[in-house]
Amino acid sequence: MNRTREAKEPHSPFAGLLDAIKLRIAEHADLRPEEPIDDAISKLADITSMQTHDLVVKGLPVALARDVTATYEIVSRNEVLQTIGVSERTLQRGKHSDLALDSNASDRLIRLVVVTEHAIDVFGSKDAAERWLVTPALGIDGRKPLDLLRTSEGTELVKSFLTRIDYGVYS
């Protein structure tokens, strides 16, 4: 296991997003009462696949995309927007409304946050995780992990690569 786990940050930098998503799930808990909304959920990766599906189909608020974009410090705003698949104009239009992202952008937003949380766990800090996201890596054909998050297949490659790094298997 990776020794940097000891230096792990105390909470997710996406706590606001997680709270908003928990609230959104709770609003629809009557639809799926068998899926409890547990306060022990500390990362987006902790929510169930069915809850994630329902969030993506309904669409996440544009305001959450704006909040996530502001959370990144090393990854540029433009890179985050390209990864999510939304324009700056979309963020501006959703500023004073309940405008929702389409299902593709909602899915990509969730994937970005889940992978970033995983990278924070592996590398021990948000800064290290962000640097890794924008640095070409040999284990994924010299591509930047962030660029691969635009598709579900690319996201699976990045997750697998992160797991290999965590266990010390780089090839």
TrEMBL record:
Span of domain Antitoxin Xre/MbcA/ParS-like toxin-binding: 119-168
Residue ranges constituting the Antitoxin Xre-like helix-turn-helix domain according to the UniProt record: 53-113
Any one Pfam family here would be Xre-like-HTH
Question: In the record, what terms sit under GO molecular function?
Answer: DNA binding
Q: Which NCBIfam families match?
A: TAS_TIGR02293
Protein name from the UniProt record: Uncharacterized protein
What organism is this sequence from? Paraburkholderia ribeironis
Classification of source organism? Bacteria, Pseudomonadati, Pseudomonadota, Betaproteobacteria, Burkholderiales
